[in-house]
What we know:
Blueprint: H1 8-22, H2 38-50, E1 58-71, E2 74-81, E3 84-91, H3 92-106, E4 112-121, E5 127-138, E6 148-152, E7 155-159, H4 165-170, H5 172-178, H6 180-201, E8 206-207, E9 213-214, E10 226-229, E11 234-238, H7 243-251, E12 256-264, E13 276-285, H8 289-308, E14 312-315, E15 318-321, E16 327-330, H9 331-339, H10 349-358, H11 369-381, E17 389-395, E18 404-405, E19 408-419, E20 422-429, H12 434-447, H13 460-467, E21 473-479, H14 480-488
Parallel strand pairs: 3-5, 8-12, 16-17
Antiparallel strand pairs: 1-2, 1-4, 2-3, 4-5, 6-7, 9-11, 10-11, 12-13, 13-21, 14-15, 17-19, 18-19, 19-20, 20-21
Helix pairs in contact: 5-6, 6-8, 6-14, 9-11, 10-11, 12-13
The protein binds one RNA strand through α1, β1, β2, β3 and β6.
Amino acid sequence: MLTEDFSELENLRLEKMLQLRQNGIEPYPTRSYKNSSNADAIKAFEAHEAAGEAEALKLTLAGRLRAIRHMGKLSFAHIEDRTGKIQLFMRINEVGQDKLDEFVRYFDLGDFIEATGTMVRTKRGEVTLQVEDFRMLSKALYQLPAAKDEVVDGEIVRHAALTDPETRYRQRYVDLAVNPEVREIFRIRAEVVRGLRKFLDSRGFLEVETPILQPIYGGAAAKPFTTYHNQLHQELFLRVSFELYLKRLLVGGLDRVYEIGRDFRNEGVSFKHNPEFTQLEFYMAYADYNTIMDMTEQMISEVAQEVLGTMIVNFNGHEIDLTPPWNRLQIRQGLIDHAGIDIQDYPTAADLEEVLKARQISFKPGTPRGKLINLLMDTYLEPILIQPTFLYDYPRDISPLAKAKPEDPSTVERFEGYIGGMELCNAFTELNDPLDQEKRFLELGRAYAEDDEERNPMDEDFLRALAYGMPPAGGFGIGVDRLVMMLTGQHSLREVILFPPLREEE
RNA sequence: GGGCGCGUAGCUCAAUGGUAGAGCAGCGGCCUUUUAAGCCGUUGGUUCAGGGUUCGAGCCCCUGCGCGCUCACCA
């Protein structure tokens, strides 16, 4: 039972709750009659004051008790709701001895209270509700971590705030309840997603939903989570990307589609990796990767401007300017400039292996050429791509769904966007030649034959769809969590995911 | 999975191998315009768990658990 291992403090609160009930006061009443948010109350009073209204402004407010200051025959308190804090001022003159005693005896920090009274301004100038009546809305049996805000030169300094990451993530409700800046991150996150939708909707894109449970996973080289459907007697995979389903929709005539949803990859966790993460993918017929590059920098900068009111963000210790146009760096040229290697001079994996060995970059034997190039990019390019940069023209063998460049069959029209040294998005001119696509699947099957889990299985139905004809198109994918992380200047994905995965307790 | 680090009161943190402490929160008292309210008094500990070394372990050793950082992994 919950109360079994209650501490002394918790038992005290439990006792208060039970006593209230004994006195005929329900500590968890069904309804509240709050008729204004805290912020609206302050706004309304200021307008009232400015208009010189003689009549008092009477309101019923409610929220969580965040500070209590008893002063003998009067009490001050702050309550907090979704819109912020407001001060309550309670005098024996208005509420009487019994109610004041009730407040002092039974109300604790963290409880939800409803108070009715008139709006006033205190001697110190704070807009305050002078309470005439109040009641318990919800008694908190556990105490929230003590956190006191001090205003120093207009800056809010919080004392003894909850910072332990395990408690913060495991009991996110506590984190949110006491750390307003955490709430702010998730408000921004919601607005970012809304901004992305608005950008795409206004350009004629259709938002769709495709299966999360899939008989064949694909669209990314990632290890899937597996599950089982009892009635169908079928093994199913949680999707690792939306790509193959969204491109089927291009075949079906939905020329511009996008999906925002969860992808699942059964892999390690890091500051920029989470086993489930939110992805935005869009596909645009009659576009190519150049079109998509332009759109990407527009979309991200517009969303930043709209949500943050600026295109300058601080991330990873750098001031980053999202204003278009972004840098564009061809991979081959980038490696010539920053590594002194022209990959064109090393047409086979064996050739490149010598280069990596000479530079003491470790790799697994049998690594395909494209992956070796990727290692060079990780070493020489990714860390220096601080300001927004499109890295483009990828090796064909690590891009099985992208279309090759007409003049160079070993290279595909693909780019990734990097900001603050972190990969943010991935896009390409989509491969729409069904026979070429089949060949790529087969090549990939060979390349990954030894590593069963990473093998990208052949999707026969996807090939069948392509064989009906898919318009030329550009496609795009972005990690929404990473985008929010960058826009909010957070150093870890966990700070922008409400309930990040943790090992089970006990 | 490997390496490194951390785990002490509800929260934030102290404590040479020698009686486990502070601030805030809590509890009692004073206080009719406070706001990190203040003043006086006071409660609160399986030091993550289990073993070991030692006359004696929060501290040293081992194992386990959890968290963080990092490497690997992640086209």
